[in-house]
Amino acid sequence: MREITKVEPFGTDIDLNAGVMKDPDVHILRRASDMRGYYQDGEALEELIRKEEDPVHYEVFEKDIPEEYGQLRFSVSKLQPGIIGEECFMTKGHYHSVAQTAEIYLCLRGEGYMVMKTLEGRSKVEPMTPERLLYVSPYWAHRSVNTGNEPLISLCIYPGEAGHNYGGIEKEGFLQRIYLRDGKVEIVKHKPSP
Ligand code: PAN
Ligand code: ZN
């Protein structure tokens, strides 16, 4: 049996409606300027950064649980609504550093999609609506996209050792982009640049 760090059992409170953990150890704040290079319309992103003084794009709240096999880490993810040009606000997206680790997403509020892909070029888009649980399988990179007009809030649970690998996604993106055009959601196949 592997030795792992001993952690006292604990409880923590989550405000499901506001999408915040009341006593987080880690609070990650991603602003619009952290999303440079991710959206199709870079000019529209710069305009948002200028006009709205670099608004908060999304937040992640976490408890400080050792990043090791045997533990479970969990987070509350809160993605603001909006569009960049016509493209819906989204998270950066990542593979797990230990690629063979899965994740559970329980959508608590808002509406959107989880966009996923594998290194072998498979892709999948799954709706995210309140009370819907998604199983993000091992090896699948994942990004959430907010298509509604309120924050998209999820509870995420994943193995302690999973880690986050953003590198590949930052360069290659995903295989679909999601737009809001004339009030309608459009999921468009995206050809990565050669
Ligand atoms: C989530 C994500 C969170 C933010 O907790 O980390 O939604 O998305 P990015 O990490 O892609 O910026 C998760 O999937 N953890 O593994
Ligand atoms: Zn993840």
Compact description:
The chain is mostly beta strands and 194 residues long. The protein has helices spanning 42-51, 167-172, and strands at 14-15, 20-21, 26-31, 56-62, 72-79, 83-84, 87-88, 103-109, 112-117, 123-128, 133-136, 141-146, 152-159, 176-181, 184-189. The strands form five sheets. A six-stranded antiparallel β-sheet has the order 3-4-5-13-8-11, with no helix packed on it. It has a three-stranded antiparallel β-sheet with strand order 10-9-12, with no helix packed on it.
Describe this protein with a few key phrases:
binds zinc ion, mainly beta, three-stranded antiparallel beta sheet, binds 5-phospho-D-arabinohydroxamic acid, 40% strand, six-stranded antiparallel beta sheet, 194 residues
List the helices and strands and how they pair.
Blueprint: E1 14-15, E2 20-21, E3 26-31, H1 42-51, E4 56-62, E5 72-79, E6 83-84, E7 87-88, E8 103-109, E9 112-117, E10 123-128, E11 133-136, E12 141-146, E13 152-159, H2 167-172, E14 176-181, E15 184-189
Antiparallel strand pairs: 1-2, 3-4, 4-5, 5-13, 6-7, 8-11, 8-13, 9-10, 9-12, 14-15
Bound molecules: 5-phospho-D-arabinohydroxamic acid (PAN) and zinc ion.
